[in-house]
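Practice problem 4.
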């Protein structure tokens, strides 16, 4: 039995000041009491007189097969299974140390992460690690974005068979590359990778099996296509055209009406990534006179507009694909969301309760509430006053066990 007492709390939806005690037993939260009450004899007590207690963070877009170094995606295909297992272990350790207690992997290589998840669920994890949700290899066109992960398909029959394989593997979500990507040379970042009919087969087959679908989509046509076929989430949602990002109020209203949650969108690509972007993207930037330094301002305005229109975001960070998006740096997405105009409560909800909903875990994770999993983060300072306090991790509790 464990009690965490802190000066203030974010419960997954709102802030509470004036002290709080979170009571934990058998891996679950058994009570949340205002003030700093006395705790019965026999309970372990952790006091944080200047801390904020909040639910463990959820990173909805990670690549556990990437090592957080420069060119991380380029190394994925060459790793042995043992090397890849070591990379996955390192990524999970980094995430947990930063207070991330659940990760959703959206870029597996030939089911390595799914197999790691299965070991975890059978109680064979060698050490404490964040709860893993996994998509398996993302579905992509022949030679398409991240094709080396093993998810290439062509035609409705192959797509249906690939969905069936993922159902048999009990994946948690289907990931599809609706457009090309910045990290795979030769793919079409401005267009689509599948026909609308193929995408409809994919989404309908997944939904019939009870699986959600999230679509990587940089181009405006890919975003529009994903909305049309009824995906559950869109990663990046960059709305790129040859003349720059373009999004109408009607498209934003469609995202809202469809309940589509946008992830991997709260941040700005490093200058090095833009300098080496596909020729289409560099040509568009040169045509409009957009410098890498100006991209951040454009993205802040774009995301702020989406937020004000009612689009729901989660703070998936595309974690692991490079040093600026290393595992354990998801807090940067929270700060970016606030800078774009979100309230502190909405930004933290995007990292906790909204992410839990997007991952199908809203009944047990993402909130400090009686009966929920005791996945808890304590940071020094007042996170309501400054979300940068997320960087100052004081304690992490995973399933009721203090791991930091």
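Answer key:
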């Amino acid at each position: 039995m464990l009690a965490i007492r802190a000066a203030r709390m974010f419960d997954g939806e709102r802030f509470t000041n004036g002290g709080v005690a979170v009571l934990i037993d058998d891996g679950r939260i058994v009570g949340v009491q205002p003030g700093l009450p006395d705790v019965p004899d026999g309970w372990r007590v952790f006091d944080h007189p200047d801390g904020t207690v909040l639910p463990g963070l959820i990173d909805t877009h990670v690549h556990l097969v990437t090592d957080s170094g420069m060119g991380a995606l380029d190394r994925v295909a060459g790793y042995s299974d043992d090397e890849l297992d070591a990379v996955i272990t390192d990524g999970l350790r980094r995430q947990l140390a930063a207070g991330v207690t659940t990760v959703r992997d959206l870029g597996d290589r030939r089911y390595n992460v799914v197999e790691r998840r299965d070991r975890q669920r059978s109680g064979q994890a060698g050490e404490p690690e964040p709860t893993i949700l996994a998509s398996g290899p993302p579905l992509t066109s022949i030679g398409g974005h991240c094709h080396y992960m093993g998810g290439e398909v062509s035609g409705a029959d192959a797509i249906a068979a690939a969905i069936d394989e993922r159902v048999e593997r009990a994946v948690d979500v289907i990931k599809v590359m609706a457009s090309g990507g910045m990290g795979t040379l030769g793919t079409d970042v401005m267009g689509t990778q599948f026909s609308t009919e193929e995408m409809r087969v994919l989404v309908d087959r997944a939904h019939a099996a009870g699986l959600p679908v999230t679509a990587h989509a940089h181009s405006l046509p890919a975003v529009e296509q994903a909305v049309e076929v009824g995906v559950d989430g869109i990663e990046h949602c960059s709305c790129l055209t040859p003349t720059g990002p373009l999004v109408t109020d009607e498209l934003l209203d469609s995202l809202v009406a469809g309940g589509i949650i946008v992830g991997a969108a709260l941040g700005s690509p490093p200058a090095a990534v833009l300098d080496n972007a596909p020729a289409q993207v560099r040509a568009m930037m040169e045509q409009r006179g957009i410098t890498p330094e100006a991209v951040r301002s454009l993205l802040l305005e774009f995301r702020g507009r989406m937020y004000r229109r009612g689009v729901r975001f989660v703070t998936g960070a595309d974690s692991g694909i490079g040093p600026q998006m290393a595992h354990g740096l998801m807090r940067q997405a929270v700060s970016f969301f606030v800078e774009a105009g979100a309230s502190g409560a909405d930004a933290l909800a995007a990292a906790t309760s909204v992410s839990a909903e997007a991952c199908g875990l809203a009944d047990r994770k993402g909130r400090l509430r009686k009966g929920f999993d005791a996945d808890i983060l304590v940071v020094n300072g007042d996170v309501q006053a400054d979300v940068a306090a997320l960087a100052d991790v004081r304690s992490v509790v995973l399933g009721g066990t203090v791991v930091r």
